[in-house]
Amino acid sequence: MADDVVTMDKIVSLSKRRGFVFGSSEIYGGLGSSYDYGHYGLLLKNNVKAQWWRAMLQERDDIVALDSAIIQHPETWVASGHLAGFTDPLIDCRTCKLRFRADHLAQSACGRKPSKHPGETEECDLTQARDFNLMFQTTVGPVQEEGSTVYLRPETAQGIFLNFKNYLQFSRKKPPFGIAQIGKSFRNEITTGNFIFRTREFEQMEMEFFVPPDEAATWFEHWLEQRTNWYTDLGIRPDHLRLRPHTQDELSHYSSATSDVEYLFPIGWSELEGIANRGDYDLKAHAEHSGQKLEYIDTATGERYVPHVIEPAAGADRTFLAFMADAYDEDEIEGEVRTVLRLHPQLAPIKAAVLPLVRKDGQPELAGEIYRDLRERFQTEYDEGGAIGRRYRRQDEIGTPWAVTIDHRSLEDSTVTLRDRDSLAQERVPIGELGEEIERRLLQPWRSPKLQ
Ligand code: GAP
Fold first, then answer.
1. Model confidence pLDDT, tens digit, residues 65-85
2. Are 354 and 365 in contact (CB under 8 A)?
3. By the 8 A CB rule, do 406 and 428 touch?
4. Atom 19 of ligand 1, nearest CA residue
């Protein structure tokens, strides 16, 4: 079925209906652009992060992991350039008292009705653009004096640079090697919206790959390829993914080359991940501000240099949204529209649902035994309430790839039916082979049925 059935509204509605994502603080009327992940959302996001860790750590031996603090020494943000330069140009309207990003005026709505863009009517009274720092500021300690001002990190990357020296000492790694981390970052974004696409609190999956300076261009290409493959291996349709190199005037202050991995969201092509060649900007800046030497010394040759850094920086929430958008589908079964999340089985929140056909004749007892066995191996759900068709639909909507149905025959010949979410094929499988069969299917390469 055509992928144009996907809209942001449908994803928002499914997310709420099925417990993936809720607006935060809803009982108080909500807090703009803050979201809570519900049971299935959390399981899906955990699977996205687990796949990222898998690609970074388990499948390679040149990357190590870190979980650094959210609040770091304030000098960090002086050295990184965030205190001076991590700003958006803002414009206030003295008439409607709203604030807009100067570079987003054409997409912003003025506060008065009928809705216009800021500056479009004679009554609009706009100020000059002023720079507004996106870092959230708070204080440590009981006294709010100047010296105790700290910031919530706007990116996880800096925690990695601060630990570079520790890692050289303990990890027995030498360039080329990487340090990876997943964690929350905070930005006081002025223009939020589009559900979890841009929020003020979000999770990043970042890796800083330290390389000899003359190898930086080669490693940059390596990471462009690796990261693109990661998305397509997990089922993102290749025609919905592209690499877009930044133009010279888009480049961040630290970057000599950046390409965005973009996904064709229902809102159009938008950034999923940025892959940057940061050169030696960060290590040199922190060396200068801290007075510490942040360089690699080859003990055999005595050669010393400041490594260059290639950084793939992805957002866990945006990646979650891309997987949801790519998976969302509708088809028709027996005259009824079915909503189905065609997620890669490795990402699906629940791998198998165990469903007794009826709530009697020993079926729930046998189903309970099967459920307890399967949940030892992977995330499994048991459901005995309501018509079987309705239970299948519920599992389809949360993306469960396989449903195990226990019927009267199961008690006679110890077999069950294994229903496939996408093909709807139902196969009879001996109960004793069920766990292995689902594990075998989980390990198989997968491509989106939406591609056929
Ligand atoms: N260390 C480099 C860095 O932070 P970035 O392009 O600003 O680069 C990396 O952020 C990724 O983090 C983005 O590609 C996006 O997926 C995610 N991200 C950034 N700001 C976000 C926001 N306000 N809400 C959700 N995700 C965001």
1. 999 999 999 999 999 999 998
2. no
3. no
4. 315
* Three-class SS state of 400: coil
Taking Cα atoms as reference points, which of 236, 203, 151 lies closest to residue 21? 203
Q: Ligand 1: distance of its center to the CA of 148 in Å? A: 27
What pLDDT, on a 0 to 100 scale, did the predictor assign at position 88? 87
For ligand 1, the distance from its centroid to the CA atom of residue 187, given in whole angstroms, is 9
Residues at CB less than 6 angstroms from ligand 1: 155, 157, 187, 189, 198-199, 202, 204, 206, 271-274, 311, 313-315, 317-318
Angle in degrees, 0-180, between the axes of helices 39-53 and 316-327, rounded to the nearest 10: 110
Long-range contacts from 3-8, C-beta under 8 angstroms, 24+ separation: 3/237, 3/240, 3/326, 3/329, 3/450, 5/328, 5/329, 5/330, 6/266, 6/325, 6/328, 6/329, 7/266, 8/194, 8/195, 8/265, 8/266, 8/267
Residue 251 tokens, joined: 């480049």
- In DSSP notation, 220-253 reads HHHHHHHHHHHHHHTT--GGGEEEEEPPGGGS-T
CA angle 23, 313, 55 (to 5 degrees): 100
pLDDT digits (tens, 9 = 90+) for 230-261: 999 999 999 999 999 999 988 887 888 999 99
Ligand 1 centroid to residue 273 C-alpha, Å: 7
How many Cβ atoms from other residues are within 10 Å of residue 320's Cβ?
A: 23
Let me know if 338 is exposed, middle or buried by CB neighbors in 10 A (0-12, 13-18, 19+): middle
Ligand 1 centroid to Cα of residue 111, in Å, is 28
Q: Are strands 402-406 and 352-356 parallel, antiparallel or unpaired?
A: parallel
Cα 188 to ligand 1 centre (Å): 12
- Atom nearest to 315 CA in ligand 1: 16
What are the angstrom distances between the C-alpha of 318 and each of 25, 61, 223, 274? 21, 27, 19, 12
- 357: its two tokens: 């056909």
- Which residue, 382, 358, 373, is CA-closest to 437? 373
The amino acid occupying position 378 is F
Phi, psi of 352, rounded to the nearest 5 degrees: -145, 140
